[in-house]
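Hey everyone, long-time lurker, first post.

I ran two proteins through the pipeline my lab uses and got sequence/structure pairs for each. Pasting them in order. The first:
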Amino acid sequence: QVQLVESGGGLVQAGGSLRLSCAASGLTFSSYTMAWFRQAPGKEREFVAAINWSAGNTYHADSVKGRFTISRDNVKNMVYLQMNSLKPEDTVVYYCAADPTPRFGLSRNQYDYAYWGQGTQVTVSS
């Protein structure tokens, strides 16, 4: 079955960096659009970034543009989120997600993503 396993979360000071990783298995990874979402307690899941199958197209939410970068390695079946200049408001759980449907463009809609990881907590102290 499809498994997405995130890692790399933790505690960091404001202004610091973290790199999240997501290991995918049980799917033809190079065929899937991959994305990162995040969710605070009691709030809707928020789109962070997405990357198409070839890594030729990426999209980042305005709230993270210029600070976060999504990338992927189709040989290792991995997707990454490099997070720089972290702010206390980036403190939430981050989820990796996979969209199996070929689309025109990259979806920011969580309901288009069929597979999800368990999440990894990122905490940014001020």
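...and the second, right after it:
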Amino acid sequence: QVQLVDSGGGLVQAGGSLRLSCAASGRTFSSYAMGWFRQAPGKEREFVAAIDWRSTRTYYTDSVKGRFTISRHNANAKNTVWLQMNSLKPEDTAVYYCAAARSVDYSGSYLPDDFGSWGQGTQVTVSS
């Protein structure tokens, strides 16, 4: 059974930091790129960051470059992906979801449809 479990969200003041975690199990996620998306109320789900399976390439949407860092640890039975978020802004407020790429040939797509398994989401709220 494929399972992604997000955690680490919370309420933080502008300028603060949070670290999101995603525990992935049930599939050979170590062979797939992993990503983070977010969805604010009334808005579409948007790409935030992704990392390839070997951690050699990372991708970020422009609005988080220099502030967010994605990383991962691959293990036989359980893989973990983190999103370190620094210098948070009120516009970063959203539900954040981790996701696994559908294909082993992931090459930096920002499209949600190119990701298959999804976590349940974790709320991030940044107050001004």
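Reply from user beta_strand_b:
Welcome! Quick read of the second one: The longest strand covers residues 18-25. The two ends are 40 Å apart (CA to CA).
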